[in-house]
Amino acid sequence: MQVFVEGVGMTKVERHYEKGLSHLAAEAAFKALDEAGGPGGVDYIVVANALATLQDEQLDLGGYLATSLGLRGVRALTIEAGEASGLAAAQVAASLIESGMADKVLLVGVEKITEFPSSKAYRHLQMIYDSESRSYYNVGFAADAAMLMRLYMETYGVDRELLSYWPALMHNNAKENPYAMLNFAIKPDRVSKALVIAEPLTLLDTFPLGDGAAAIVLSSKDSSSKPMAKITAIESATGLGSIELSDDPLIIDSVAEAYKRLSSLTGVDRFDFIELHDSFTITALLILESIGVAPKGKAAEMVAQGSFSPTGPGPVANPSGGLKARGHPIGATGVYQLAEASLQVAGKFPGVQVRGAKRGLVISMNGLGSNSFVALVEGV
Amino acid sequence: MAEIARIWGWHPEQYKGLAVDEKAVAGPDEDSLTMGYEAARNAIARAQVRPREIEAVFFGTESKPYAVKPSATIIAEALGITPMTMASDLEFACRAASEGMRALTGMVSSGLIKYGLVIGSDTAQANPGDVLEFTAASGAAAFVIGPEKGAAAIIEDSVTFVTDTPDFWRRSGEPYPLHGEGFTGEPAYFYHIESAVKALFEKTGLRPSDFKYAIFHQPNGKFPVKVGQDLGFTLDQLKEGLVTPMIGNTYNASALIGFAKVLDKAKPGDRILLAPFGSGAGSDAYSILVTEAIEAKRLLAPTVEQYLTRKVKVDYGFYAKSREIIYVIK
Q: Which residues of chain B have a CB within 8 Å of the CB of A194?
């Protein structure tokens, strides 16, 4: 696969009380289109979004955004895969280009989650899990992650405090990121003392609720003039996405499988950085172990030792600050990750820039891995 | 606070971030009327006016016992102010009483009335188990507004800043209010107070350093300190008027009790910034100058400090009974 990134745009992840979906999308999209030399030649707009039908009562978001962005007439698609919507939409956008159906695609991820009090948002977020085995039995949003966290600690004999280095690393990375929602540092010892969401998981083990939009102009080699990055593979796999059905809940099967597919396709297994889906501290650690950059049961210790820090041996994990601190505008997050990875390999990321970054891996998943996507982003 | 956390299963650290240690709860035989009456009686004692000289009574509350039927008349009657007086209840979430204070300054200045009484009183409601329950408290403050001569303090200037911002509300027929969580912060509390205070600065040419004290609406212990510091005030200017950490958020009385506490301490010539806020949303900003008359008036009624130390700790069961969270089906 050779799909080129011509421009990216992002809004700060924030509680954008005064901006709706189209306003947020426009901010990001116009910036990306400007960088790409204007909207001329855009064949498709592919929109990644998870919650617009529930939060904004909006169907066919792609169609309406095409018009509100001044692109009336272009072809439009809206892609939903829960939290993984962003990379799912990127996979569709890249496929359109690879297949020759499009030369240039505007990929927009947008989410507005703070339209209502959080009780409503969490009721909607609950839908990322299997409704038949979860929601009907009122297993809360963070409950599965908390159970996994406990299982991880008991199985590997890992102390709670060791897990606290991940949120601290994320907050530290996000400090300089102008698009990050939580750009302040925290010390690891604050994590276990924060408000308990579901024992042993605390508020600082998870992401803040925020709105945002990210956009990327993707193109084929033919129409690409001054690309900043290229996407050389996007793979995906579905999985169980549940603890009790899994043979080994401490491996996220879909992430492992998607990554296996990507590396056998590209032969690549070393990266300068990874932008991964740390919806909770535990999901970050399990992803690192599922793709083998950390041995099983060792990710927490490696994080604490600085293995994934900007100054560590690498790969650098989430130089953006990740879902934890950059924020997680659900359906838009994958597009943020892809935009950040593109800026990294172009040497233009405005926050923690990984020195000499040439190759980055992006990992996004829904829930606990019902659907996982991985993308390889390389410099040009 | 620990008692509320215990009952509802909140994490013991949950309320620490609110910077409120205790909250005041109205007793089983108290409501916004009785508390308002007590505060008004103290205010009249200090004002040294005859009740009949008061020609307007404004009662600012969001917990009045009657949905229809003025509470202001009950208090006015009990104080001997009726019948030759205006009397009405005002509603603007937590700043209704402040609106009354500003209206009275106009009515007094125009010569329509000689004295007016404004009361802010609330037995603040909160949905049991909601985070709001940590801070929703009971309390009252009252002020007599009259001519400059003999006044303890002079309202030099004031501004009001309101918008339609639904950050906190209670629909008709609902027992407890709802709130927009984080929306109550930046777009509501901070935006309106900062806008009102900046407008006052612009109008008067005054700066934070011109004030000895600054008092803001106090929904918790954190917000008033942050808004004050954001506006350029120091902790020294803020701390005297900060009462929420000891008594919780008394809604309409919140900033006004802080103001009363500052008046208990202020010296002639001190300038005070007062900025109440109400959800929905709006804020007033007053510049108030303390006069020589303050010293003599101070002794004529109990001080805020005396009320703060006069307390009995109660458990959640007693609180639930007093606030009619539990009640006997009749």
A: 13
pLDDT in tens, A346-374: 999 999 999 999 999 999 999 999 999 99
Q: Which domain holds residue B66?
A: 2-148+311-321
CB–CB of A18 and B11 under 8 A?
A: no
B202, with CB counted inside 10 A (0-12, 13-18, 19+), is exposed
Average pLDDT over residues A198-223: 94
- Separation of alpha carbons A347 and A228, rounded Å: 9
- Domains in chain A: boundaries: 3-116+209-219
Same domain for B140 and B216, yes or no, is: no
Distance from A191 to chain B by nearest Cα, in Å? 12
Query: Does residue B49 sit within a domain?
Result: yes
Taking the C-alpha atoms of residue B234 and residue B214, their distance in angstroms, rounded to an integer, is 9
- Tokens 């303090």 found at: B153
Are residues B41 and B140 located together in one domain of the fold? Answer: yes
Q: Which residues of A touch B (CB under 8 A)?
A: 15, 17-18, 114, 117-118, 193-196
Q: Are residues B157 and B261 in the same domain?
A: yes
Is residue B126 domain-resident? yes
Looking at the structure, tell me whether residues B9 and B59 fall in a common domain: yes
What is the distance in angstroms between the CA of the first residue and the CA of the last residue of chain A?
14
Least confident of A36-45, A140-149, B27-36: A140-149
Query: Sign of torsion, CA B28 B34 B36 B37?
Result: negative
Q: At B208, which CATH number? A: 3.40.47.10
Q: pLDDT tens for residues B259-283? A: 999 999 999 999 999 999 999 999 9
**Interface contact A193-B14, CB threshold 8 A:** no
Nearest-Cα distance to chain B for A215, in Å, is: 27
User: Taking each helix axis from N to C terminus, what angle separates A281-290 and A165-174, rounded to the nearest 10 degrees?
Assistant: 100
Residue B306 in any domain: the answer is no
Query: Distance (Å, rounded) from C-alpha B103 to C-alpha B284?
Result: 12
Establish whether this prediction's ipTM goes over 0.90. no
How many structural domains is chain B composed of?
Answer: 2
Tell me whether residue B326 is in a domain: no
CATH code at A3-116+209-219:
3.40.47.10
The pTM (predicted TM-score) of the whole model is: 0.85
Give the number of A-B residue pairs with CB atoms closer than 8 Å: 20
* Peptide bond preceding B83 in cis form (omega within 30 of 0): yes
- Alpha helices, DSSP H only, in chain B? 2-8, 32-47, 72-78, 96-110, 191-204, 223-230, 235-239, 244-247, 254-265, 294-298, 304-309, 316-322
8 Å CB contact of A17 and B187: yes
What would the DSSP string read from start to end of A77-131? EEE-BTBTHHHHHHHHHHHHHHTTS-SEEEEEEEE--TTS-HHHHHHHHGGGS-T
**Residue B255 in tokens:** 């900033």
Smallest Cα distance from A14 to chain B, Å:
11
